[in-house]
C-alpha cells in the first residue's frame, strides 16, 4: 500500500493520501470533508499541496477533492507521451467517473483551468459552479508574450532548463509571487521535492504545450457559451507577469456576467498568497 513520502510535512498538509489507478498509472489525490463537491485542479509546477489552505478551510462544509495530475506531486511520473493538456483532460474525466463525483464545483488555475473546463464543456450537466484564477483558454499563438519564450522552451536550452535546473520551481515560481515573502523555504521545498531530477517530464510537457495546444484551447474558448457567465467566479493576481492582466481582460469580455475579484498585491499563485480571501469569496459565491 502506498504512503506519502517522509518529506511531506503533515502540519502543512494534514490530509490522508489516496491513490487511484487511471489507465495504467496511479494518480494521488486527497478527499476531505463531506457535502457538495469541490474539485481542485492545479497547474505547473504545482500539485494538490498548493490548495492545502483552501481545503483546510472549506472541508467543514464541502467535500474537497484535489488531484495531482500525472507527472506532478505524488502521482506517478512515467516516461512517454502522456502529458498533453488533452491527455490530462481525458484522465481527469476517468478520475471523476471512477470516484463517481456528482454535481461538481470546479476550482482550477493555470494549465488546470483548460483541463478542468474541457471536462465541464463535455459534461455540463455534472458541473455547477466554476472558480478560475490566473489561467487562459484561447489560442495564444498570436501573442508574442507567449510565443517568444515558447521558442526557447522547445529547444535544447529549454529542455536543459526544465529537466536539469528545474527552472519552473527554482526560478519561475519565486518570480511569479506578488509578495515573495509568502513563498517560505518550507513551502518552496515541497514543490522542489515533488519534482526530483529525472521526474520533470510533466512540467516540461506543459512548457511545450505553449507551442502546440493553441487549437485545443481555442476550441474550448469557442464553446464557452454553453455556460451562463454568472456560474463563474474569477480571481486574479494582478502582479502576475506570466499570465498578465491582459488575459483577465479577455475573460471579462468573454464572461461579462461573471464575478471578478482582483488582488493588486498578488501574483500568479493566488491560492498561496490570498487563501483567506479566496475562501471567503468561494463560500459567498457557492451559497449565492
Automatic annotation (TrEMBL):
GO cellular component, one term: membrane
Protein's UniProt name: Haloalkane dehalogenase
GO molecular function: catalytic activity
InterPro entries: AB_hydrolase_1 (IPR000073), AB_hydrolase_fold (IPR029058), AB_hydrolase_sf (IPR050266), Epox_hydrolase-like (IPR000639)
Record PANTHER family: CIS-3-ALKYL-4-ALKYLOXETAN-2-ONE DECARBOXYLASE, MONOACYLGLYCEROL LIPASE
Matching Gene3D superfamilies: alpha/beta hydrolase
Tree of life domain: Bacteria
Domain annotation AB hydrolase-1: ranges: 37-275
Amino acid at each position: 500500500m502506498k504512503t506519502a513520502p517522509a518529506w511531506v510535512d503533515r502540519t502543512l498538509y494534514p490530509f490522508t493520501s489516496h491513490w487511484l489507478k487511471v489507465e495504467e498509472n496511479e494518480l494521488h489525490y486527497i478527499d476531505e470533508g463531506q457535502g457538495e463537491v469541490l474539485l481542485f485542479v492545479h497547474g505547473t509546477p504545482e500539485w494538490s499541496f498548493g490548495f492545502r489552505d483552501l481545503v483546510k478551510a472549506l472541508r467543514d462544509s464541502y467535500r474537497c477533492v484535489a488531484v495531482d495530475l500525472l507527472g506532478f506531486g505524488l502521482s506517478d511520473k512515467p516516461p512517454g507521451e502522456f502529458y498533453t493538456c488533452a491527455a490530462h483532460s481525458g484522465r481527469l474525466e476517468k478520475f471523476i467517473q471512477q470516484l463517481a463525483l456528482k454535481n461538481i464545483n470546479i476550482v482550477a488555475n493555470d494549465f488546470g483551468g483548460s483541463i478542468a473546463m474541457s471536462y465541464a464543456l463535455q459534461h455540463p450537466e455534472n458541473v455547477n459552479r466554476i472558480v478560475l484564477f490566473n489561467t487562459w483558454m484561447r489560442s495564444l499563438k498570436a501573442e508574442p508574450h507567449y510565443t517568444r519564450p515558447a521558442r526557447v522552451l522547445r529547444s535544447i536550452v529549454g529542455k536543459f532548463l526544465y529537466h536539469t535546473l528545474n527552472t519552473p520551481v527554482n526560478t519561475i515560481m519565486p518570480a511569479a509571487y506578488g509578495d515573495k515573502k509568502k513563498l517560505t523555504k518550507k513551502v518552496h521545498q515541497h514543490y522542489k521535492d515533488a519534482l526530483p531530477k529525472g521526474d520533470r517530464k510533466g512540467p516540461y510537457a506543459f512548457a511545450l504545450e505553449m507551442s502546440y495546444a493553441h487549437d485545443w484551447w481555442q476550441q474550448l474558448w469557442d464553446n464557452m457559451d454553453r455556460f451562463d457567465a454568472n456560474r463563474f467566479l474569477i480571481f486574479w493576481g494582478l502582479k502576475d507577469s506570466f499570465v498578465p492582466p491582459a488575459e483577465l481582460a479577455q475573460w471579462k469580455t468573454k464572461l461579462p456576467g461573471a464575478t471578478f475579484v482582483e488582488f493588486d498585491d498578488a501574483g500568479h499563485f493566488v491560492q498561496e498568497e490570498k487563501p483567506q480571501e479566496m475562501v471567503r469569496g468561494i463560500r459567498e459565491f457557492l451559497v449565492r
